[in-house]
């Protein structure tokens, strides 16, 4: 399976880079993973909500330009659906069974995801009602994708 992660913003923290690299290495056994990192649009403090929406839309268009037409898109969104790790694993497995060999996960920047991106998403996935920083979200997502492969292969992993 091909998995792309389209995300906004660079990873600045060393400990996150190390964690992300570790899960990229572990996942290389299970899938072809590509992380597409986009520069975030600068958003000064004093902008109106309309101006912020315009920036978010611009960011959204850049995100969508990186999504392949045939890809099944899972947008990470706080108000999306919550799944247990087992449910997430079976969602991934079912996509494979349905012949969806290309999945794109999308992680927004500090402004979140535009309506256009959310409308393109085939699934909106929430990791809880809490807001996580987008850099940390990338590491959490990679760990859960890795966990999903371990579960689907009946391989042991931390409970
Ligand atoms: C700092 S958050 C953006 C917060 C923004 N105010 C919003 O409401 O989306 C950056 C990105 O991380 C992801 N994210 C953060 N917390 C999340 C959660 N609990 N579940 C799913 N995705 C989350 C989303 O893709 C979000 O666009």
Automatic annotation (TrEMBL):
<dbReference type="Pfam" id="PF02590">
    <property type="entry name" value="SPOUT_MTase"/>
</dbReference>
<dbReference type="GO" id="GO:0005737">
    <property type="term" value="C:cytoplasm"/>
</dbReference>
<comment type="similarity">
    <text>Belongs to the RNA methyltransferase RlmH family.</text>
</comment>
<keyword id="KW-0808">Transferase</keyword>
<keyword id="KW-0698">rRNA processing</keyword>
<keyword id="KW-0489">Methyltransferase</keyword>
<dbReference type="InterPro" id="IPR029028">
    <property type="entry name" value="Alpha/beta_knot_MTases"/>
</dbReference>
<dbReference type="InterPro" id="IPR029026">
    <property type="entry name" value="tRNA_m1G_MTases_N"/>
</dbReference>
<feature type="binding site">
    <location>
        <position position="108"/>
    </location>
    <ligand>
        <name>S-adenosyl-L-methionine</name>
    </ligand>
</feature>
<feature type="binding site">
    <location>
        <position position="76"/>
    </location>
    <ligand>
        <name>S-adenosyl-L-methionine</name>
    </ligand>
</feature>
<dbReference type="GO" id="GO:0070038">
    <property type="term" value="F:rRNA (pseudouridine-N3-)-methyltransferase activity"/>
</dbReference>
<keyword id="KW-0949">S-adenosyl-L-methionine</keyword>
<comment type="function">
    <text>Specifically methylates the pseudouridine at position 1915 (m3Psi1915) in 23S rRNA.</text>
</comment>
<protein>
    <recommendedName>
        <fullName>Ribosomal RNA large subunit methyltransferase H</fullName>
        <ecNumber>2.1.1.177</ecNumber>
    </recommendedName>
</protein>
<dbReference type="InterPro" id="IPR003742">
    <property type="entry name" value="RlmH-like"/>
</dbReference>
<feature type="binding site">
    <location>
        <begin position="127"/>
        <end position="132"/>
    </location>
    <ligand>
        <name>S-adenosyl-L-methionine</name>
    </ligand>
</feature>
<keyword id="KW-0963">Cytoplasm</keyword>
<comment type="subunit">
    <text>Homodimer.</text>
</comment>
């Amino acid at each position: 399976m091909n998995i792309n992660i389209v995300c906004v913003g660079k990873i600045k923290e060393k400990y996150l880079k190390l964690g992300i690299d570790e899960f990229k290495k572990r996942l290389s056994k299970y899938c072809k993973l590509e992380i597409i990192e986009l520069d975030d649009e600068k958003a000064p403090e004093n902008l109106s909500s309309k101006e912020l929406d315009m920036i978010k839309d611009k960011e959204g268009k850049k995100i969508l330009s990186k999504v392949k037409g045939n890809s099944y898109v899972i947008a990470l969104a706080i108000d999306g659906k919550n799944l247990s790790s087992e449910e997430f694993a079976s969602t991934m497995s079912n996509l494979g069974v349905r012949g969806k060999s290309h999945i794109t996960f999308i992680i927004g920047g500090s402004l979140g995801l535009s309506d256009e991106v959310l409308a393109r998403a085939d699934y909106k996935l929430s990791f809880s009602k809490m807001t996580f920083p987008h850099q940390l979200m990338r590491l959490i997502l990679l760990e859960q994708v890795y966990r999903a492969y371990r579960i689907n292969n009946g391989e042991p992993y931390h409970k």
